[in-house]
Specification:
By secondary structure, the chain is α+β, with helices and mostly antiparallel strands. The chain has helices at 26-34, 72-84, 178-186, 224-236; strands at residues 2-8, 11-17, 44-49, 56-62, 67-68, 92-97, 100-108, 115-124, 145-149, 152-160, 164-169, 196-204, 207-214, 218-220, 243-248, 251-258, 263-268, 271-277. The chain has an 18-stranded mixed β-sheet that branches. Strand 2, helix 1 and strand 3 (44-49) form a beta-alpha-beta unit. The radius of gyration is 18 Å and the shape is globular. Residues 134-140 have low confidence and may be disordered.
Length: 279
């Protein structure tokens, strides 16, 4: 099976074209191929295929084999893949994901014909936690909501970008023992389907610093939907402007929340790493 490894802000996935390959057990393949010691090494698996509702489809699987709803970084990589591998000549692409249709806008270098950056319309931010929390906590309670974990209180602002995010604002995130607290919040009883967890340090009103614990993958270098959720959480708690740079371990993403139409946009580059074949 042929594959390509790509990364966006260090968020790396293995990409397989269903136009050329057949994948019967994506959950098993994702676990196998994502292993950084016995496999290729990645945050998960992304399958690119045809679609009847959008121009193309994207299905993503986490490193533990669970299916993910959406990944903004992966969507940007898919846009670059589709254009540079000759599957489309469009610079405006509709991509069908588990969390709905997402729209990609490609910026292409006219000399090299390479995609320099991709802007993703991530859709509307969802604030109601009623569909995601067993306790049916309301929006008002989930803004700076106090959650006690292992004897310590964390204030969580819940935002969904088609996938759940528990955003926590705090100082000193570089020294955070994320491998201890991340899984405890991910698997907290409040989140029956688990949650992504973002730890955010505010540099100023247009710059955020972020570390992320992704459900099913652990700490990753970046999370596009998490960056979007974090900016929205920052706006509704009065910490930042509706347009800001989000600095992650793997790079910086530009996020904008158009409050009038409630759409969130994510912009950044994407890169091919290598091609390979797995037997």
């Amino acid at each position: 099976m042929q594959f390509e490894k790509m990364q966006a802000a260090g968020n790396d996935y293995i990409y397989v074209s269903l136009f050329e390959e057949q994948v019967n057990d994506p959950e098993i393949l994702s676990r196998r191929i994502s292993d950084r010691h016995f496999g290729v090494g990645s945050d998960g698996l992304v399958l690119i295929g045809p679609d009847t509702e959008g121009d193309f489809s994207m299905k993503m699987y986490n490193a533990d084999g669970s299916e993910g709803a959406m990944c903004g970084n992966a969507a940007r990589c898919v846009g670059k893949y589709l254009y540079e591998r000759g599957l489309t000549t469009k610079k405006e692409i509709s991509l069908n994901t588990k969390s709905g249709i997402k729209y990609l806008s490609l910026t292409v270098n006219p000399q090299s014909n390479e995609v320099e950056s991709v802007r993703v319309n991530m859709g509307k931010a969802i604030f109601s936690a009623s569909d995601s929390l067993r306790s049916q906590v309301t929006l008002q309670e989930m803004v700076n909501y106090p959650l006690r974990v292992n004897g310590q209180e964390y204030h969580i602002t819940f935002v969904s970008m088609g996938n759940p995010h528990a955003v926590i604002f705090m100082d000193g995130i570089d020294n955070l023992e994320i491998e201890k607290i991340g899984p405890q919040i991910e698997h907290h009883p409040f989140f029956p389907e688990r949650t992504n967890v973002e730890f955010i340090e505010v540099t100023d009103r247009t710059h955020l610093k972020m570390r992320v614990w992704e459900r099913g993958s652990g700490e990753t270098l970046a999370c596009g939907s998490g960056a979007c959720a974090s900016l929205v959480a920052g706006v509704i708690t009065g910490r930042c402007e509706p347009k800001a740079s989000v600095q992650l371990k793997g790079g910086t993403l530009e996020v904008e929340w158009e409050k009038d139409n409630k759409q969130v946009f994510l912009t950044g580059d994407a890169h091919f790493v290598f091609r390979g074949e797995i037997f």
